[in-house]
Design brief:
The chain is an alpha/beta fold and 245 residues long. The chain is built from ten helices and twelve strands. The chain has a single domain (2-235), classed as Rossmann fold (3-Layer(aba) Sandwich), CATH 3.40.50.300. The mean pLDDT is 92.
């Protein structure tokens, strides 16, 4: 079996990864593409009726409109808002890669494409030995980097690109997302420098969006490039990802 997917990661937390993932998911659905969402770990979950609710995972589930259970979309959930390693340690648990791979392997065969969202940035610690980058390396999926469009973003994006390529992972592109209403001076030349020095395409720049309009606007933005994005993902398909399990 050949798996098709996209890892949506970021230069840090709060840069808009979930909104971008949901926007892509809705755009794919409108194009008739069967898409599944997967966020292997979510921290900062709120407890309701004795259950930890992963807000990002729930939004991703709703955006894909799949019949998956929430525990399939987010197999590891923690209340402490920190790195997965710190959150799991506080809860007295350990995050096991084998469990994540097993869940993903079961899900991937049900969809044309899987969207995998990281918890925090590309190098966020998962357990005492490994980072998120180590978790996704065996998947072999292309990476989409989401970054906050501001002063300093060029360095953050280039470091993420360099780290991904050092692990022989394909960087599909970059999304520059404006999270603040304060205008981004064009003289910063963020897109131009990222493309020049990172040898990668900034597939879109997203201007500041009011909270209530973000998901709808995001889907409209990605609808315009959904077919091209899906084709690129298909060209990066990986066969027998988890044959060692």
């Amino acid at each position: 079996m050949i798996y098709y997917g996209l890892v949506i990661t970021g230069t840090g937390t709060g840069v808009g990864k979930t909104e971008v993932a949901c926007g892509i998911a809705r755009a794919f659905r409108e194009k008739g593409i069967k898409v599944g969402g997967f966020k292997p770990i979510e921290t900062g979950c709120v407890e309701r009726d004795g259950e930890l609710i992963p807000e990002d995972g729930l939004r991703l589930l709703n955006a894909t409109a799949s019949a998956l259970k929430l525990e399939e979309v987010v197999p590891y959930r923690f209340s402490f808002p920190a790195s997965p390693y710190a959150s799991a340690s506080k809860a007295g648990e350990k995050i096991l890669f084998e469990r994540i791979y097993q869940v993903f392997d079961e899900l991937a065969g049900k969809f044309e494409v899987m969207l995998v969202e990281s918890a925090g940035g590309f190098l966020v610690p998962i357990n005492e030995n490994f980072l998120f980058a180590d978790l996704i390396k065996p998947m072999g999926l292309p990476i989409l980097i989401v970054a906050e469009n501001r002063l300093g973003v060029v360095n953050q994006v280039l470091l993420t690109i360099e780290s991904a390529r050092a692990r022989e992972l394909k960087v599909l592109g970059v999304v520059l997302n404006q999270t603040s209403a304060e205008p981004v001076p064009p003289t910063l030349q963020n897109q131009e420098q990222i493309e020049q020095f990172g040898k990668v395409k900034v597939i879109c720049q997203i201007g500041y969006l009011e909270k209530e309009a973000r998901e709808k606007k995001m889907s409209e933005i990605f609808k315009e490039i959904a077919e091209e994005l899906f084709l690129t993902i298909k060209q990066s398909g990986k066969k027998n990802l988890f044959k060692y399990l």
